[in-house]
Each structure stands twice: as structure tokens, then as C-alpha cells.
Amino acid sequence: MAELTHLDEKGAAHMVDVSDKEATTRVARAEALIRMQPETLAMITEGRHKKGDVFAVARIAGIQAAKKTSDLIPLCHSLNLTSVKVNLEADSSASLVRIEAICKLDAKTGVEMEALTAASVAALTLYDMCKAVDKGMVIESVRLLEKQGGRSGHWKVQE
Questions:
Q1: Which of 70, 87, 104, 122 would be a feasible disulfide site paired with 83, CB 3.0-4.6 Å?
Q2: Residues marked as catalytic
Q3: Is the pTM of this model over 0.85?
Q4: In whole angstroms, what is the distance from residue 156 CA to residue 113 CA?
């Protein structure tokens, strides 16, 4: 089992020193699912929501969140992201929205937390915009799908 890099030899939390690492291109993909009532999903996809384009607002929120990850997660490095994409896809048969966030940069540390944060905040934004009509929405399955770059190389979730 790999060691916990955010703990020093005495078990105290610390920010990982990446000074000696080589900068490489790094990419991470994460997803979040948000389940809702079929009528709520139809309202969003048909553009009938009184608050406007719910997907556009969630997409912007996810992008902003990726850029602010180090403000939210105490031991994350502040990163200069070169690309953040947040895609939202409605699945009417499952009555859910699948959110995928992809973050990219050239750096000494990875962007997994930024991708996970983007997907999570986009899902929270969907919830916030739709809670007046559907308080029972469920955000689930926030997970890393893939990461590339760095010493550990390429990793992809096994389905």
C-alpha cells in the first residue's frame, strides 16, 4: 500500500514538497451524478426553468471551483490551470445528469482534486438552482475517472 503523502514521519499533516519533481503535462477527468425527478430534468433540458440556463450556470460554477480548489482543500497546491472543461449530459432514462470535469496543466503536481472539485460544485449548483422544485435530488458517485502524467503515469478507473 502506498504511503499517505500528506503526513510526515510523525503523522502530522503537511503540504507535500514538490520542488524536486519534474513538470509534466497532467490531465484528470472526474464525474458526478445527480439524480432528480423526471419533471425536474425535463424542466432543465426543455429550458423551462425560471432561473434560465441551468447547465450554463453549473458549467461556469465548476470551472470557477477548479480554479479555487487550493482555497477549499487545505493541503492542495495552488495551480495555474491551462484548461478546465465541464460537460453536463442529461440521461432521461435514468433521470439524472452526468457531469464530467477535465482539468489540464503543465506542473509538478496533479490536477485530480481540481477535476473532482469542479464536478462536485457543478452538481451542487444544479441542486441549488433546482431545489425549489425538487429537494430530493441526490448527488452521487463523485469519482476520479482518469489521470495522466507525473511519476505514477496513466491511471483509469476499471468498470
A1: 104
A2: 128
A3: yes
A4: 15
Which residues are CB-contacts of 4 (< 8 A; sequence separation ≥ 6)? Answer: none
What cell does 142 get?
463523485
SS (H, E, C) the chain: CCCCCCECCCCCECCCCCCCCCCEEEEEEEEEEEECCHHHHHHHHCCCCCCCCHHHHHHHHHHHHHHCHHHHCCCCCCCCCCEEEEEEEEECCCCEEEEEEEEEEEECCCCHHHHHHHHHHHHHHHHHHHCCCCCCCEEEEEEEEEEECCCCCCEECCC
